[in-house]
Amino acid sequence: MARTDDDTWDINESVGVTALGVAGGRAAETRSPNPLINDPFARLFLDAAGDGVWKIYLSDEPPAELAEVDPDFGKRTEAMKSYIGSRTKYFDEFFVDAAAAGVGQSVILAAGLDARAWRLAWPQGSVVYEIDQPKVLAFKLETLKSHGAEPIARVVDVGVDLRQDWPKALVEAGFDPSAPTSWSAEGLLPYLPPEAQDLLFDRIQSLSAPGSRIAVEAFTGDFFSDESVAQRKEQMEKYRQVAQKLGSDAGTDIGELLYDGKRTEVTDWLGAHGWKVTAIGADELMAGYGRTLPSDVDAPVPNSVFVEGRL
Ligand code: SAM
Questions:
Q1: Of 54, 34, 33, nearest to 45 (Cα)?
Q2: Residue ranges of domains in the chain, CATH in brackets
Q3: For the segment 75-86, what is each residue's pLDDT rounded down to a tens digit?
Q4: In the 3-class helix/strand/coil scheme, how is 231-253 assigned residue by residue?
Q5: Are 121 and 152 a contacting pair, CB within 8 Å?
Q6: pTM of the complete model
Q7: Is the CB of 16 within 6 Å of ligand 1?
Q8: CA separation for the pair 233, 212 (Å, rounded)
Q9: Measured from the CB, is residue 163 less than 6 Å from ligand 1?
Q10: String of DSSP letters for 73-103
């Protein structure tokens, strides 16, 4: 279903499904022989959500008939698992470093099923604000609570849409704009319209005291080019057919959830607003973690850049 300006969702519908998809990647990475990360909670979310296309990363061998739809399906799935593992590790390291440097307040924008507050070694007194759709956060908290999981940092849930006035909700929840903050935007930007992305960064800027840090999974203009959009649509149509073959609810077409259109480059924007910026491409990040990409598959993982800024 096409997006609208004020659409909302539960965990198993529309954009909520993408949070389950990422949890699937983290669950698969966690149980792999040489995992980059350890997220024991990811599997709990998948089990609580029941059967669906989000469990695809957990099948050891994709069903044979899937090769009819996409002969590279197995290679793509492996590459995406590695991508999600690498991305998770990158943001884990970012938050641990920031906390070790004394940044006591964190905001996870579009937290989804991110369980960092429950699994990273946060110093005492750390507070983690999680922003996402109310139903997504409710599903996460209920699942963790039902398994008796206790957070390591103090978690504050802020159930609000990131296209609405989230700074107001964040401050009302106790966020202190005068204290340094570590911010993350992981798996978020393509789900926002270009103008909402610009507004998001304006707002982050206005809430960031000196000493703040930010980590972003950014997508270059190339990701939103006509050619890339067409390629993604073609790929998504294949995955929709895959979901149908698996008997899953094919109502969620991930390609339909993304907003196209030219974007502000995050690296440039942060640099122009006083942040000291470092950036690394997805392929380089993954290589640094010992993960190689298949050379015979076109665009096996998103052409993204991991950007860190310090104010
Ligand atoms: N950051 C998490 C991770 O990496 O596991 C979740 C990523 S998931 C691909 C995208 C998340 O963005 C979902 O949890 C979705 O609910 C959230 N999201 C997307 N657009 C949003 C919006 N406008 N307001 C609040 N949350 C949003």
A1: 54
A2: 15-310 (3.40.50.150)
A3: 988 999 999 999
A4: HHHHHHHHHHHHHHHCCCCCCCC
A5: yes
A6: 0.94
A7: yes
A8: 37
A9: yes
A10: HHHHHHHHHHHHHHHHHHHHHHHHHHHHTT-
